[in-house]
Automatic annotation (TrEMBL):
Pfam families: Chromo, PHD, SNF2-rel_dom. Residues 292-476 form the Helicase ATP-binding domain. Belongs to the SNF2/RAD54 helicase family. Transmembrane segments: none annotated. InterPro entries: Chromo-like_dom_sf (IPR016197), Chromo/chromo_shadow_dom (IPR000953), Chromo_domain (IPR023780), DNA/RNA_helicase_DEAH_CS (IPR002464), Helicase_ATP-bd (IPR014001), P-loop_NTPase (IPR027417), SNF2-like_sf (IPR038718), SNF2_N (IPR000330). Residues 1-48 form the PHD-type domain. It comes from the Eukaryota. Keywords: ATP-binding, Hydrolase, Metal-binding, Nucleotide-binding, Nucleus, Zinc, Zinc-finger. One of its GO terms (cellular component) is NuRD complex. This is DNA helicase. It catalyses: ATP + H2O = ADP + phosphate + H(+). It comes from Phoxinus phoxinus (Eurasian minnow). Its main location: nucleus.
Length: 479
């Protein structure tokens, strides 16, 4: 190479003995006082390989300058003269990176040269979009959020360490917290690894972590995972190291046979709802009684009410009552607009704490992870891959409730239509008003024991719309 790798100028150059690169002595970091004797290898060839594939760059900072390079004392220098000053190095950029197939707990700093050599396209794109003179300031947020963060850091040393090591470099604290443990595996040394879904991240960002990773509430989530596995499969053995004893609310096994007649009217909400800390309004309790009575009579129903009066709560409580009283263990299918799914999650978490609820949304990669790990505990219950396929008939379902969008009812009919659903709930059921819609036709082919339609939209004296809803519920009577 006839020009310097750093400044691109010619002149007297030092050539690498293992690659074509050339450098000026003063362009090296730290600069060299003289041409070295013997073999010389350039910084690019000495650069350490990355520990994995980089998924994305989060931020950058100025790193420490390399140690100064001492200058040999010239032979003709007077004895009383001071030593020549050392050659001072320059600060170099370091990049905070997220690794592929690894959680944000494993983010680390890499040298600029490492990133440039191993991720050229990503490095150039990041340079184009980012100010490379001044590191980005990522400590942004409302004043109230900053006050809360400061208070929590003062109270919780572990949170303070997380904030210092990750938060101020572009990692949201939620990405470091467990949402749910999906699965486990055991290696040849009998070490257990857990597949973890992280808060505020999609399922395709789930990662495998070793059982002794230092993660907040890891022991609690391990217990939840094994308790649910024991509840659904009857397994009691747990591989790996003994899980530390922590206080967790153990899910109660539902009764094998019905313990309450659903025809009997509740004058007050049952004890299992009192334990949630919530209180139903009188009209919601009346709605619950009506839904239970209709279920006992084998009558599919439409719950029509003004928006905001708690149809979601009544539905969650209705399904929970079937589960807690031994009438049905599910699975229950809830189809709702994508924008309301988060509200359904919140209400089930509040009103049905013993039920295992799975949200089936996202892109093909996320849905593939959900199908493989959240539909059944059994291996190969569903064929892997991005394309949905039927679930084995004998495979036990892992969840009690599945929340999904209208679109996926049609798109993933292969898997969803292969499960025997104890009850279907359709939120904003006026979507069914057109009996020619694909959504309507697909749902007609699902195996459904009971149907509940929710609507808050007035039918505006349109008997045809009402007829289509009734036709979906009981096609043999309204055809």
């Amino acid at each position: 190479m006839e020009f310097c790798r750093v400044c691109k100028d010619g002149g007297e150059l030092l050539c690498c003995d293992t690659c074509p690169s050339s450098h000026h002595l003063h362009c090296l970091n730290p600069p060299l006082p003289d041409i070295p004797n013997g073999e010389w290898i350039c910084p690019r060839c000495l650069s350490a390989p990355l520990k994995g594939k980089v998924q994305k760059v989060l931020t950058w900072r100025w790193g420490e300058a390399p140690p100064p390079m001492p200058v040999p004392r010239p032979a003709d220098l007077p004895a009383d003269a001071p030593d020549p000053p050392p050659m001072i190095g320059r600060k170099e950029r370091e990049f905070f990176v997220k690794w592929c197939n690894m959680s944000y707990w494993h983010c680390s700093w890499v040298q600029e040269l490492q990133l440039e050599l191993n991720c050229q396209v990503m490095f150039r794109n990041y340079q184009r979009k980012t100010d490379m003179e001044e590191p980005p300031n990522l400590e942004m947020g409302a004043e109230g959020d900053e006050d809360k963060s400061c208070k929590r850091k003062n109270k919780d040393p572990f949170y303070a360490r997380m904030e210092d090591q990750y938060g101020r470099f572009g990692v949201k604290m939620e990405w470091l917290l467990i949402h749910r443990i999906l699965n486990h595996s055991v290696d040849k040394k009998n070490n257990v690894h857990y597949l973890i879904k992280w808060r505020d991240l999609l399922y395709d960002q789930s990662t495998w972590e070793c059982e002794d990773m230092d993660i907040p509430d890891f022991e609690t989530f391990k217990l939840h995972y094994w308790n649910h596995r024991e509840l659904m499969l009857g397994e009691e053995g747990r591989p790996g190291k003994k899980i530390k004893k922590v206080k967790v609310r153990k899910t109660e096994r539902p009764p094998a046979n019905p313990v309450v007649d659903p025809i009997i009217k509740f004058d007050r909400q049952p004890d299992y709802l009192d334990s949630t800390g919530g209180t139903l309004h009188p009209y919601q309790l009346e709605g619950l009684n009506w839904l239970r009575f209709s279920w006992a009579q084998g009558t599919d129903t439409i719950l029509a009410d003004e928006m905001g009066l708690g149809k979601t709560v009544q539905t969650a409580v209705f399904l929970y009552s079937l589960y807690k009283e031994g009438h049905s263990k599910g699975p229950f299918l809830v189809s709702a607009p994508l924008s309301t799914i988060i509200n359904w999650e919140r209400e089930f978490e509040m009103w049905a704490p013993d039920m295992y609820v799975v949200t089936y949304v996202g892109d093909k990669d996320s849905r593939a992870v959900i199908r493989e790990n959240e539909f059944s505990f059994e291996d190969n219950a569903i064929r892997g891959g991005k394309k949905a396929s039927k679930m084995k008939k004998e495979a036990a379902v892992k969840f009690h409730v599945l929340l999904t969008s209208y679109e996926l009812i049609t798109i993933d009919q292969a898997i969803l239509g292969s499960i025997d659903w104890a009850c279907l709930v359709v939120d904003e059921a006026h979507r069914l008003k057109n009996n020619q819609s694909k959504f309507f036709c697909v749902l007609n082919n699902y195996p459904l024991q009971h149907k509940l339609l929710l609507t808050g939209t007035p039918l505006q004296n349109n008997l045809e719309e009402l007829f289509h809803l009734l036709n979906f519920l009981t096609p043999e009577r309204f055809n």
